[in-house]
Structures are given as C-alpha cells and as structure tokens.
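Researcher: I'm preparing a figure for a lab meeting and need a structural model of a single chain. I don't have an experimental structure, so a prediction will have to do for now. The sequence is pasted below. Please return the structure as tokens so I can convert it later.
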Amino acid sequence: MSVIQVRPATLRDAKAIAEIHVAASQDAYKALLPAAALDAMSVQKRQAFWREAIDLCEPQVIVAHLDNKIMGFAGFDRSRDKGTPATTGEVWALFADPVHWDKGVGLALWDATRDGLQEEGCTKATLWCYLRNERALRFFELAGFKRELGSARTTEVGGARVEEIRLQRSLV
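Model: Understood. Here is the structure written out token by token.
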C-alpha cells in the first residue's frame, strides 16, 4: 500500500499547485462566491503567484504526492496579522485536489505544516477560513483549531462580501 509523501515544493510543481488551487477553490467555494469570480480564476496567474512564493520561500510551500502525482499543497510561515508575536505561525493555504478529498491528503499536509512551524520556533498556529466553508472548518477543528471569538471580519472576493474567521491552536 502506498503512503502519501510530503516534500518541499519546487518551481516545477508550480503548475500542478496552481491547477489544484483553482480546482479546489472552484469546488469548495461554489456556494460562497459568485460563479463569475470562480470562473475567472486563472491557472496562469496562480502559477505565477506560486512560482514566486516557492522561489522566495514566502510562504514555505510543500506538496503532498503519491507516486510523484501531486495531490495537494500547503503554504505556511509567520503570521501576517499585525501585532502577533514572532512565535505565531500561519497556515496561508492548504488545498487538496477535489478528487483526493477525504483520502488523508489534508492530514498529511497539516502534519508537515505543523512540524515546519514548530521547526521555525512557532508555539501557536493561526489561519483564516470562510465562515460558511463547513468542510474546511470541520477539518481544522478536528486538527485541534478553535475559532477565535471576536476575530470575524468581512472581506470582498469577486464582488461578494464574505465573512472570515480566524482559527488558532497551540503547537506545544
């Protein structure tokens, strides 16, 4: 039986990461964001974004794969939120290809992300999640994250106003 492996992303992974990012976003956010915004998502633009992120290591990007077929990715680094201590890390992104949902990809990525944040000296992890993204909220709550009361904010995505909430958990 093959086991999902996780490794640092390389520039050659950027296109697969972009394809997963677009496919997973279009599937996961179809009830949250306008169809026009989802349809306008560009693999080419996402690929450029992820190439730069991988090249600059900001955030750190990892991929989950099975037999060299990329199944998902995560990006993590120090928290981008103002006023957070240097020991607070953030999950910037964690996406699995929809055909691999519920197959352990997210857990493999989270385990590697947690280890990476701990190696960087982080004692706490945070992330932002759309309030109506039940699949993601359920996943992260099962991974030990708790909703941070009072952190809800409204953001505009593709012309729609969407509520986000910050989740946090200890890494020690």
